[in-house]
What we know:
Helix content is about 65%, strand content about 0%. The chain is mostly helical. It folds into 2 domains: about 10-90 and about 170-365, Hypothetical protein af1432 (Orthogonal Bundle), CATH 1.10.3210; about 95-170, no CATH class. The longest helix is centred in the C-terminal third of the chain and has 23 residues, at about 340-365.
Amino acid sequence: MDCLQLDDVQRDWLRHRFKAADAGHPAIAALHRSVSALIASDASVVRADWRVPAADAAYGIPRLCSRVPLPPEQDDCEDLLASILENARLPALPIVFHKLQQQLEDPDTSVDDVAWTISMDPKLTVSLLRLVNSAFFGLKVHVETVSRAVAILGAKRLSALATGTLLLGLFHERPPQAIDVDEFWRHSVACGLAARTIGICIGRETPERLFVAGLLHDIGWLALCCERPDLACGALRESAHSGDMLHECEQRVLGFDHGVLGYRLAAKWNLPPAIASAIAWHHEPEKAVADSANALHMDDVDIVHFADLVVHAMGASITCDQFVPRLDPQSWERLGMAPEHVGMVVHAVATELEMTLELLRAEAA
C-alpha cells in the first residue's frame, strides 16, 4: 500500500493499525490511501512518540484497569447477560428522545412537529439554540426560536443534533474504571458522522437515523464498563495480550460481546429495530443475514459495519481495540458503495469531528 510522504513512525502506525485488514480488498485499499493522505496533511493524527507495542505489552491497560480485580469464574452467559441488563446503571432515556426517534423515521414529520417536541425539554431548547447560533453553522442572522432553527436547518438534521445532545448529556458522568469517557465518545461520534456520510454517498433517505445508529453502536460496551468493569477489563487484558479483536475476546471471556448486550439494551429502551440491529451486528453482519428479524435492517447494519472500520482506521478507537476490524466482503457488496467514496467519508469525519464533539460536550456539560 502507498503511504505517501510519511515518516517512519507514521508508516509503522499504519502498518500496525491495518495488520488484520485484507489489504487486497478495494475498500480497504481505498481506506488506507485516504488515511495515509489524512496523516500526510495532519501530523497530529499520529503522536510523534508512538511506538509499536511489544508482543506481551498490555496496550492501554494499566491506566484503565490497574485497580480492577480479575473477574471470578463466570456463570451461564445468559444469566450473566440478564444480570447486567437488570442492574445496568445507565439512565433511562427521556420521552423526548423516543419522540424524536419516531419523527426521524416518519417522512411526514414537519417543522412544527420537531419544534414542538424539542420545546418540551427546556434545557434541550436552550442547548440547541446555542448550538444553532454558534460559529459551526455560521448563520448570518440570530435564531431566537426552535421553530426558526428547524426551518433553517431542517427537521431531520436538528432532530439528529438534539438526539446527540441528549445522549451525551445522559452519559456525561461515567464510572472511571475500564473506560475513558472522552475516548469512548470520540469514537462514537466519529462513527455516527461516518455512518451519516456513507448514507448520503449511497443515496439513503435517512442519514440522520444512521448518525444515531453510529452514535449508539457501542452502547453495550459502555453498559459493560459501568456494571461489570472486572469483566470489561478481563476482555481488555485478553485483547491486549492476544492481539485479537476486542469483541472476539469478549466472546471468550463472557460468552457474548458488547453488540449482543447493546441489542438487549436497545430492546429495553424500545429503540427503533433498525438501530437495534446495527448495534447488535456491526462487527458480524453475516449473523444478521441469518436472523430474519435483523435481515430486514441489513442496510443499517452494513453501513455501521463499514463506518466502524473507517473510524478505527483514522485512529478513533476505544481502549486497546487498536486494529481496523475485518471487513465482511458480502456486507461491502450489499452497500453498493464505490471505493472512490471512501475518501469522502474520511474527509467528512476529519472535517466535522472536533467541531461536533466540542459542540456536543459544551451543551452536555
